[in-house]
Amino acid sequence: MQMQITMTNNNISKQEVELLKELPEHPNIVKYIDSKQEQGFLFIILEFVEEGSLQALMKNFGGKFNEKVTALYIFQVHNILSGLQFLYKEGIIHRYIKASSVLVKEGKAKLTDFGVAIKRNNDSTEENNS
Q1: What radius of gyration, in Å, describes the C-alpha atoms of the chain?
Q2: Which residues form the Protein kinase domain (predicted)?
């Protein structure tokens, strides 16, 4: 993922990186590897997820699902809910779940795109706008 750093998205990108850095590993959350800032760009390096997004997979099937494909998507709902439950326990609310922010690797869904996630702090909520 590559993002141009500007006054409006620099803090957002950095907050997203900090949130991902602090997050323990979970099988249904994309793994953060590293980030680098060079020549006005912020590069966020995440694990390679070869099957792409759930949105791309749905597009490939043209919206026509047979029983096998339908079973796959039902299983992904379980993975997505497992990832959301983990985030909730970690005090994070994703706030932007959509098919393009769910990646699939080896048949398992992994949540990504924490751009507007928020992290709760004790009694209050701290917006990460990342």
Answers
A1: 16
A2: 1-130
